Amino acid sequence: MSLLNEISEAVIAGNVEGTREKVKLAVQQEVNASSILNDGLMVGINEIGVRFGAGKIFVPTVLMAAKAMHEGVEVIKPLLESDGPTTVGKAIVGTVKGDLHDIGKKLVVLMMRSVNIDVIDMGSNVTAEQFIEGIKEHNPQIVGLSALLTTTMNEQAHIIKAFEEAGVRDQVKVLIGGAPVTQGWANKINADGFAADAASAANWAKEYVTSL
Amino acid sequence: MVGRIKYNVMNDTELSFLKSEIERLLIERGIHLEHDEMLSDLAELGCQVDMETKDLKFTKELIDKAVKAIPEKFTLYSPSGTRDLDFPNPDGGFYSRTNTGAPNYRDIKGNTHYTTLEEVEEWYKLTNAMENIDFVTLPSTSGEYVPGDAVDVYTLEKALKHSAKHIWIQPYESDNVQYLIDMSAAAVGGLEELQKKPIVSFIACSVPCMTYKHMDAEILYRCAKSGIPVQPCSLPTAGANTPVTAQGTAFIACAEIMAMIVMLELLHPGLPVIATPLLFSMDMMTTYTLQSNTEITIARLIAMELFENGYNIRAHSYGTGTDSMEMDAQNFIERTNLTDSMAMSAASILGGAGQLETAKTISPLQLIIDNEIFGIAQRLRRGLDVNIETIDSEEIFACLDKDPTFSYLMSPHTNRHFMEPHRPDMFNRDGAVNWETDGCKSLTDKALEKFHIIMNAEDTYELSADKMAEVKKVLKLANEALVK
């Protein structure tokens, strides 16, 4: 098995330490950093995505694989910087104002990171103004708005309107989710997408950013 | 003998271990409480409080003092006065309640949508007629139909107007808590009357691990100050915000509830409290939160045993529910399995009537069927006495059956006992011929018939006009203050 294959397998196994050590070894052997990323780490994480999509593995396995991949990326990051970012896109995600629930939001953050999206977790009870500041500061392609209550889902609509008024609506795609949220609600409030669960949110985000 | 059948899911060693670990957690790690006024009061009462970090620790002496202050007997009253709930339940049974927190309503045509105020009224007309449902919650009326900042006060107005049964209130905003108390007081002629006969109790929830946000702390604090019963609740999701093991999740939930109970009893010794662990688990493939995972059902039994047997504190958890979207086979397998298991626990209250889709949807037809399921479960818990009379020794030893004219159908023993077997109203108890003649009705068909009978009947309860006027005055004030 080649060293790049071993890196892929270490990612698939969620072997954080093993991935780091094998990537270090590859660097020592002067394997091109882009090749380590694309032919080693990414091959592993893509295989994880395929297995998860087929219902063959569980979420903790996905998250451990993602962690292993990130450890590997950290090793080669200094060598890759001249080649551009190591993530495929950027998102800011938060639970809307008035809502303190964050289990689902945290899962979305983890799952988006597992598909190599740089995610800024804005926390819970996040106001429209804070989201707008987040857009200006981080320049994401995607904003994720989570709401668990029928009383707070209206805030998703309010935030989207606030984006329009602040002139930042066209800069981002807005993805919404949460227990009472539906595709119908997403259509009604002019959101760009609705995700029923964390994995769907990650897939939606990945598809969007890779289509750019 | 009633209330005799109980599962013991922990041995004595396990029960003692769980108690000691919970108390150690309260003493060594403590809690995070986002309520300055409450922190100050609890500091004065002896808790170790860091006002900057808002962290609080208890001592063993304080825990023991609080547990000792919990009333052994208390009553949750009903607005109608006809369904008062004495704790412990004198006949050894459990009390039951409707589901709380569901955003969706599935009407009798099968359409699912956000809950309207009209459907809230429909719900209370139904619950008044359900003989095996003992108290009610507030359906989550949509912010599309009433002001989003005041959903709970608008829904409570309907509950106070229509519900003959005790009302369990789940506030949605810190600022709303006092108005909810004031509305309830207005419905009975003032706070003093409400304290004497609480027709409402409140739910306050922790956030794992050991954190209490301002809104929930405010509920605890205002209820303690006003002397209103609380059913402190923890809603952890195993694997998401608590350990993936059901036992670990039960441990944290029970510790969080214990902390709330200790705080309530320190602030208001003798306040009626009911421990309410509502445990969930996360499916590790879909990440969906589940209500009906098998291990989490056992964890609920553990939690009930801990509070009821370990601390002699009345306890409350889910008694029915499903992760199914529909009233299908999965639904009925899950809810009857859960109901029967929980009926065999030491629980004083079982909840969740009417819910589908992991408590996210309520259904009037499911509520009517749950009424039957709870009836069966109550009968199961009561068990059967075994003695000379119940085994019919006298007739058998007397060889009465050898008499050619003897028939069990007409025996004195049958005459004394034939009314005892539980007979669910809507279940088929007839042969195929009559069933076909009667239109081959399913249980759901019969539930629909019952729905129409109830909805076409006169209201059985409505709050008096003068009291309702007082409630509306508070509602008006709440609307002015809360709706932005």
UniProtKB/TrEMBL annotation, chain A:
Any one GO molecular-function label of the UniProt entry: cobalamin binding
Keyword Metal-binding assigned: yes
Origin organism lineage: Bacteria, Bacillati, Bacillota, Clostridia, Eubacteriales
Domain B12-binding N-terminal: 1-88
Cellular compartments per GO CC: cytosol
Entry keyword Methyltransferase: yes
Protein name: Methyltransferase
Family that this chain belongs to: Belongs to the methylamine corrinoid protein family.
Domain named B12-binding: residues: 88-212
Entry's Gene Ontology BP terms: homocysteine metabolic process; methylation; tetrahydrofolate metabolic process
Record's keyword terms, sorted: Cobalt, Metal-binding, Methyltransferase, Transferase
From TrEMBL, chain B:
Organism field: Acetobacterium bakii
Any Pfam family matching the protein: MTTB
Family, per entry: Belongs to the trimethylamine methyltransferase family.
GO process terms (BP): methanogenesis; methylation
InterPro entries in UniProt: MttB-like_sf, MTTB_MeTrfase
Protein name: Trimethylamine methyltransferase
MF-aspect GO terms: methyltransferase activity
Keywords: Methyltransferase, Transferase
